[in-house]
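From the pipeline queue, job 12 of 40. The input is one protein chain; the requested action is below.

Action: predict structure.
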Amino acid sequence: MRTAELTRNTKETQIKMSLTLDNTTGQLIGTSGIGFFDHMLNSFCVHGKFIINLEMTGDLNVDGHHTVEDVGIVLGKLFGNILGDKVGIKRFGSSYVPMDEALCLTAVDISGRAYLVYNVQTSSQMIGEYDVQVTKEFFRALAFNMNATLHINLIYGDNDHHKTEAAFKSAARAIAEACAVTDGEILSAKGVL
């Protein structure tokens, strides 16, 4: 199994996280302190077959922005640490995920070039204690810290819970596919990523 651990401490958040790939099942162990975000992280783990161990405190007395974004930063760095020079991975992945009336498509290229396209429109400000706006910040932090190009496109949907969950699930499945082990070569005409 491929695994990595990282600690990141700032004045806003203190995070210790480990990530394990190549599991038969996935699970979030621990909590961010934000119930809906934990639900999304657990869905991300289950559908990507990732295990995330998370110990953290954040400045939730301010709001959840720093907590969500910083989890994305650390998670992205962990993917980057595990994948290293990207030798022997599939590199590309994509996944359509329906969640009731919502349908989301995510495509990823673990290319060494960080980019995010995030086309998910929501109408709610909050889902429970979770600020829906920070979903984009999570995925931006994830993409830029794992040096991946990530496109998340909500095709349609009405319920913001369903739309957000479809985005997390489709991203997890696409990333898991891109991380899949291949024959040991770098999938690039340049010979390097």
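Job complete. The first strand starts at residue 3 and ends at 9.
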